Amino acid sequence: MTDKLNLQELVRRAFQSEIDMGVGEAIINKQATLPSQTVVVEENKQATTQVTSSYANLDEHFAAISSCQKCSLGKTRNKFVYGVGNPNADLLIIGEAPGAKEDELGEPFVGASGALLDKMLAAIQLSRQTVYIANILKCRPPENRNPLPEERELCFPYLYEQIDMIKPKLICTFGLVSSQALLDTTESLGGLRNKWHEFRGVPVMVTYHPALLLRNPHFKRDAWEDMKKLKVSYESMR
Ligand code: SF4
Question: What is the model's pLDDT at position 237?
């Protein structure tokens, strides 16, 4: 457990990363205050969907599912995008579905949005090696359309099994599609942000997808606030 003094120092130093994240002018001389650690957990229906993994580890799981053809996306994908990062991560990041670059390389969050995600993580002293990153779908939907309900339903058990094996202490969903899917809600991103939710007993934070931040930089300030809260909770739970 990191003491409060160290947390304040961590947050103060994190302000210095605002420039890297592209939030705006540096405010590193501003007195940093700890965001509230109050966790308001909201129930969701899928939290009761208990899918448990019978696999020994993520490698075994990947080997078992990477040729999946349960939905039509199996026929159109180039590469199966399983996930990347620390298999024992305390923080799990969940995105939507592979895009063109991810489909080409077989890794989630690459390209421009991946580079911004790396900066967002670096801003709170984390990296894609210390967290785990996965999507709600393992295969790219054509033309980057949103996942269909039946595709989500067929693919979700794989993500549940990953969560069961990784056992994260925190989950952060990036973007509306992954947030609505994981939390089984139709609420807007604005309605889902700024409060903690719960998925199978794990606190869930909702924030903007890096791709949206690239198109709408004025949302970066709010995303940065989310990152600071995530960092404080991350440190307090370790
Ligand atoms: S998207 Fe999921 S369910 Fe569909 S083929 Fe790919 S791995 Fe299988």
Answer: 85
